[in-house]
Amino acid sequence: MGQRGKLAPLRHTMPGCAEYQELIDGPVPESRYKIDVMRRRWKNGGREAVEEHYHEPGKRAWAWWRLEVPRRDLVWALVKAPRPKG
Prior knowledge:
The chain is mostly helical. It contains 4 helices and no strands. The protein has one domain (10-80). Helix 1 (18-25) crosses helix 2.
């Protein structure tokens, strides 16, 4: 349920929907299949849907980090970036 009707393919662009929230917070569980689904949604207008959150602290879309950042920079940010001491 929830995937029917003429707006079903666009649910990922509507704030409040689970599909929209996944673009911001990431899928749970994070499987290879889910990443492929997220990539399709992001390319099909998802970026414009979450654009308003781009400059809010902590609201940068998960899909932006995972699907747009070059692999080299993503690996550096996740693995090699210096961590704050404390």
